[in-house]
Design brief:
The complex is a heterodimer of chains A (about 350) and B (about 850).
Chain A: H1 2-13, H2 16-34, H3 39-64, H4 74-89, H5 96-120, H6 125-146, H7 154-161, E1 163-164, E2 167-168, H8 169-187, H9 189-199, H10 201-206, H11 211-237, H12 247-259, H13 270-290, H14 294-328, H15 330-343
Antiparallel strand pairs in A: 1-2
Helix pairs in contact in A: 2-13, 3-8, 3-11, 3-12, 3-13, 4-5, 4-6, 4-11, 5-6, 5-11, 7-11, 8-9, 8-13, 9-11, 12-13, 12-14, 13-14
Chain B: H1 3-15, H2 18-21, E1 26-35, E2 38-48, E3 53-58, H3 64-71, E4 79-84, E5 87-89, H4 96-101, E6 104-107, H5 119-126, H6 137-152, H7 169-181, E7 188-192, H8 200-215, E8 219-223, H9 227-233, E9 236-241, E10 244-250, H10 256-264, E11 283-287, E12 299-302, E13 306-311, H11 317-325, E14 335-337, E15 341-345, H12 348-352, H13 359-368, H14 379-393, H15 409-423, E16 427-431, H16 439-454, E17 458-462, E18 474-479, E19 482-488, H17 494-503, H18 518-528, H19 530-545, H20 552-577, H21 585-597, H22 599-602, H23 604-628, H24 632-650, H25 660-667, H26 675-692, H27 694-704, H28 706-711, H29 716-742, H30 751-763, H31 775-794, H32 801-819
Parallel strand pairs in B: 3-8, 3-9, 6-7, 7-8, 13-17, 13-18, 15-16, 16-17
Antiparallel strand pairs in B: 1-2, 1-4, 4-5, 9-10, 11-12, 11-14, 18-19
Helix pairs in contact in B: 5-6, 6-7, 13-14, 13-15, 14-15, 18-32, 19-31, 20-26, 20-29, 20-30, 20-31, 21-23, 21-24, 21-29, 21-30, 23-29, 25-29, 26-27, 30-31, 30-32, 31-32
The chains are: A mainly alpha (about 350), B alpha/beta (about 850).
Chain lengths: ~350, ~850
Amino acid sequence: MSAFAGFGIWAQRNRWIWSAIGVLILWLVLSVVTNRFSLSSLSGVILSASFLTVVGIGQMFVVTTGRGNIDLSVASVITLSAFVALLTIKGQDANLAIGVLAAILLGLAVGTLNSLLVVGLGIPAIIATLATGYVLATATLLSNKAIPGFIVSPALKELATGRISGVPIMAIIAILGVAATGFVLRYTIFGQLLSAVGQNRAAARLAGIRNGRVIASAFIISSVLASLDGLLLGAYIGGAFLEMGQPYLLQSIAAVVLGGTLIFGGSATALGTLFASILLVLIVTTMQIIGLPPGAQDIVQGVVVILVLALAGRQALARRAFVEIADGDHDATADAEASAATAQPK
Amino acid sequence: MSQLAVAAQDSAATAAPAASARPAVVALSGITKSFGPTLANAGIDLSVDAGDVIGLVGGNGAGKSTLMRILCGAMWPTLGSISFAGEEMAFANSDTGEAQRRGIRMVHQELSLCANLSVAENFFLETPSDSASRPGWRALYRARARAALDAVFPGNGIDADAEVGHLTIAERQMVEIARAAATPGVKLIVLDEPTSSLDLDRSKQLRAFIRERAKAGLAFIFISHKLHEIIDIASEVVVLRNGRTAWQGHAADASIGKLVQLMGGNADPVHQHAVTAASSQDVLVRLCGPLTAELGHDIDIVRGEIVGLAGLEGSGQKELLHAIFKPERKQHAGVSRGAEAGFIAGDRQKEGVFPLWSVLGNISIGALARRPALAVVSDRANRDTASHAASRLRLDEKRFQSSITELSGGNQQKALVARALVADTPVILLDDPTRGVDIATKQDFYRLCNEVARGGRALIWHTTEDAELLACDRVLVFSGGRIVKELAGEAITEQAIVGASFAQSADRQASAAKDRTAMARFGRRLVNSAPFIGLAAVLAIMIAINPAVASTFGLDLLLMPALSLVLVTAAQMFIVGGSEIDLGVGAFAGLVSVLSATLLYDQPWLGALALVAALAAYAGLGGVIQARKIPAIVVTLGASFIWVGIGYALQPTPGGASPEWLSTLFGWSIGFMPTSIILIAAVALIVLVIDRLPLGVVLRGFGNNPAAMIRSGWSPTRYALVRYLIAGLFAGAAGLSLTAINTASDINSGNSYTLLSVAAVVMGGCSLLGGIISPIGAVAGAVTLSLIGALLGTLSVSSDYNAATQGLILIALLTLRSLTADRRSEP
């Protein structure tokens, strides 16, 4: 029993474990049922999950800033970036550097615009990123007309689809990214500031943190990661098409929430986002193997997100109740203490 | 009861003969309330008879609020009993609702009106029962509000149809007082600082009203810091001090001097203040300008001193602390700071702790916040600095790993002080840091403050506890936002502080800024009319280029596709009214369209059943969001996948057919008037009517001030369900219109409407914070947005620019709105 209790406490601090367990169980079940599900097929799943992980990590930064912040522009950024990559690289390895630079610049520009609207003008994140998404949609349509052809630079193609001794390069990139993010969140000042801002903005401001900068950085990180992801995703599928980023909108949020990052902000886990991405892709794969129609896949994804939120809501409820009780008693305790100071004999 | 109370009762008896025979309206006896080791109320007896006017006075933290909370059922005492009309009641059964049913009303100091509703509508929320839902209910409440306001404040000039958010603070206070006084069956009204923002005339009117109603048997408890008012109005005065009744007697036996002495004279000094050691002339903070105008000289705060900020609560002390913390803001002219400042908040939950972190994390953030963002955090270094600070505070290092929320208030406060110490700033600002802190911690705290100051820092200390000011080297007494007195050294006594804050608390706060915002108001009006101007401009351009557009047929062709977006926008508007956003509303419309073109076409009964089930699921979603307090954005985004998934499963490729009756419903024509315009106008009208019904008022109330709504007895979950049900009906209608217009269905046909509807709602002038709805504006916005494509076509611009134009319009409008924002009506 005490081992269970100990695990419970440990799992509360390491919420990524739940999605990891989910991955393990689903994979075992699949292996048993299909009799041929193996490590190599898992590596295929991980390859697809890598693309989700990269954008999920960016989304995680935004969600962690709290107040229900969400970046709705990631889908448009992914699509546009894939087109921009085709435009700039033109299938030549020689142009690769320009392409990567263009992707980064695109991410920086969109992130800056988003944070200008959110931090500078105080527009709610969901509306601001929504509006940015509209503008990007047009840019995508225009670049769709301008692309010379669907040729992907071989080096980029290798990066997105290749394997090193069986392990997809993309998965290595994603895992390295997750490790780096984990380090940033846990061991750098920025990680601490981000968590502080997400937990309690007023307290963060009074502790001397410049909230605006922290929130702006989160939006910029999100856009840059989405942009790089679009570049790689385009290389993976060998081109680009309109709406190619669309599935990543809900999935990136789902990966963040499923992984154990708090939707109310303040606590993030990169590892959880990685496992949750794999889990989500596994769920889709499972449904394909079982032969469920495409509609059912959507339904299952939606149900999973709502269920996880409704269950995780309890945690958030407890936290809110704590704040509310404290608020309610507020004046009373002030009274009590004030009188105590003079009432009690020394 | 004193003789006067009896006399008052006698006079009441002439007006209402039955009153004299009855027992007290409410009687509290032996009320004791403890918070941990401290007693907020200790053995207080209070009996209120019909016609009594009890003046309740006491210094900051004397226990008045606690006693009144207990009286109103908002809090249970540790010991003691309460009886209504002689009938004793168990506290387990008492809550605010019960107290209200027994005729007790309290006018709170922090106002509890819904700022987005009109005066009359706020009267409705408090006493909804007898309105029924007849047409003209608004006139009834308008008349009632008028009468109530005129009864208390003759010649007030408040428009019963005015939005409360646009009233001045004084007017809001008048509305709240009148609302409580007009409640049917009210027996006792508790007024907490009712005159704090009223000018002298209004205050006189209020007192005249109280006197008159008291004669008729209504009882009052009047809490005020304005002692002359107490002496003027009260039949009996109760002085509280340290949670006990310090004096209770005839108002005629009281004088201002006597009351001041009773409240705060000769207290035991908490801490004998040490040698005045303003050792250096190194000025860290300078205050000048209007703030210090009354003193006649600037104030310099130097290294090594403790400066206390005193005065009645809310006289400008907190504002000064925040101004010193961020002096670069424009409105803080007159405050300059020469060194870094740290802040210790007394409101620990709202402004202090980071609830997810350990104690150590909460301490070390103070130092981390001032380091470069990419530097690496070292647990060991954190621990070393923190333990140094903690040892000075006697905060046990073993607790470093516990969660901050597990600590007592006193220890949490120690952690916050430690945070300021590790930040190592020359100026430390303290915002009432000892509230809710036990006595032992307080003593540690005072000792530490002394040490820190003598170590060469400046402490600026706002406290609501006057006795603490004795620990300061200098005390600045505030009144009405200005510094009115400076006390130093031996001159700092509790009596001097109380005297200074009360002497100056004349009626001067009232006339705050009323119309410095004429420009902003003009800007707001312009922004609000933007959807109409936009719509007119778009239509004008199109007609100018292609006159055929102006024909019935042309308009129909153009506007019919807008109908579905208008309906989805109507749905979205109700959700936004509750300060949520539905990202699945378009998908839901798509699903309804699929259901109607497949099931409803093939098997009408099964189809109808499926539609009802879908509607129920949609409404249930609202219930889940409210009950679990989870973000609507993500839930509805998840739900959108479910709607789309079901649609795909039913109909993998576009197809189906529109039931005949449905096509007829949208396909009729009366010739001279375009059908689409009639339908769109009808939708706008329906939304407008719902919004004007009592139901709409309640929904908007929830969007603005849920706490006040719950206080008035409305159920949040029920209205969340109702809100989503209404939205679902509109989204469903949008789905049916899609089927009828396209004569087939496609699950993806509604998708683009989701984000467009949010844009239309925002364009139309609805506030995303909730509670502000403008049906006509949103409909105009929706039509404008849906015309953008056609407009670009007419201008021979590629339709690729469609989305960008919509997005840029949205950004431009939001920017304008943010620049002209009505700061006052923000919550």
